[in-house]
Specification:
4-stranded antiparallel sheet; 7-stranded mixed sheet; about 50% strand; 11 strands; mainly beta; single chain; about 130 residues
Length: about 130
């Protein structure tokens, strides 16, 4: 039903920025679309989420003020602008979508999400 493809990762110095993209195929017009990240040996962490019908967002505390999630509905794409990057931001970043719903609040719990992309690597060096 939904396929997600991430892009935009790369290697940057601490303090640098990237814009990650999550391109969706299929209907995500009333879904949460979220970004998760996972470093080797670490748990998967919810980073940011957006409800596509209206644009309500939420962030985990460690990225609030540095990362911004946004969407381009015409392109069926969700972005994650990552600024002021720190070495601890190094991880594989995944986008994910849940099933359609009318509630506008999005969780950052991975079990809430059904559709997952393959990930894009962000590496931040010091």
């Amino acid at each position: 039903q939904v396929q997600l493809v991430e892009s935009g990762g790369g290697s940057v110095q601490a303090g640098g920025s990237l814009r990650l993209s999550c391109s969706a195929s299929g209907d995500t017009s009333r879904n949460c679309v979220a970004w998760f990240r996972q470093a080797p040996g670490e748990e998967r962490e919810g980073v940011a989420a957006i409800y596509t019908d209206g644009g309500n967002t939420r962030y985990t505390d460690s990225v609030r003020g540095r990362f911004t999630i946004s969407q381009d509905n015409a392109k069926n794409t969700v972005y994650l602008q990552v600024n002021s990057l720190k070495p601890e931001d190094t991880a594989m970043y995944y986008c994910a979508a849940d099933t359609p719903h009318v509630g506008s609040w999005c969780d950052l719990d991975d079990y809430e999400y059904i559709y997952w992309g393959q990930g894009t690597q962000v590496t931040v060096s010091s």
